[in-house]
Amino acid sequence: MSSSEPSTDIVVERTLIQSSATAFPTNPRTLADVREEVAQSLALRMITKARTIDGVRIGVHFTFSKKDDGRFLRLVTSHIRARLPSSRYLFAIATTGASPTSRGTRGGTRTSNALVICGSDEDDVQRAVLLASSKFLGRVDAVQNTGTLLAASVRHIGSSYDDAALWDVLSKSVRTPIDPLLPPPGSRSIDQLLSDARSKLERMTPRQAYDALHDPTYPMPVFLVDIRPASQRAREGGIHGSLIIERNVLEWRFDPRCEARLAIADRYDLKIIIYCQEGYTSSLAAASLHELGLLNATDIVGGFAAWGAAGLPGQIRPPSTISDEESYQISQPSFDSDDVIDGV
Questions:
Q1: Contact call for residues 98 and 65 (beta carbons, < 8 A)
Q2: Looking at the 3D structure of the chain, how many domains does it have?
């Protein structure tokens, strides 16, 4: 070995000293340093994943609850502000889970967490405050509004509803005012809604519906459903043997996952044939059942008026779940329709 080269022992010792210096720095990181780093990382992530609407960056983010949630979220907003000094933005950040600082007086854990809405424009933030207040009715424990920043304590936050609600709040808050006489971007006319609904359906003529209802070999249960209001049924008549389920409770009665469903609505392959008076509302109703997973739902072309014009009987064979002497009418459920809707 050359005399100018360090010995192996010296090299090993130097390596150990350097390793020790790395493992035990003279200025170890504090908890505040870690929180600062996490806040910076979260702010950068939100900015990177932000959507742009009418030139404004918006974003929603949920993070696990930490000690002193409110202060931490304010720290995140300060980093967003520092990184977007001249940009217009609106962000919502909330913590989820049981907060370490929100213990009840009897040892229980409250479920209130922090929500912060921050923006570069005070008008954007205040519009968001007004919209958000209607999204979290009865769930807000405390609010602090400072113009460009809203800090609130909200119970049970973090669900898919909350995520969608906050995105909706931010999107509507930053949209550029439009001519009230022009349709807003993304809106559709009733003709478009009807066309889109019917594109999902295998619509039936009155004769096809009648034949399916009386075909003992049909591969799945078939039900004829009258969704017209009582006044229209009284004025126009109806088809004896059909289920009478008014439009305002239809989804609750046929969703197999809903506690308010009918006893027959325990499977997803039901052939539900809906009719209204002329075959318009019924198409929208059948498409709505498709959204629930009832992909065989359809309606009658021309509705009850077309059924009568085709000369078909005013009575069909009742569903196999009841006797021939019974009419299968469900116009008066065991609880009010309004209660069903309010409870969902």
A1: yes
A2: 2
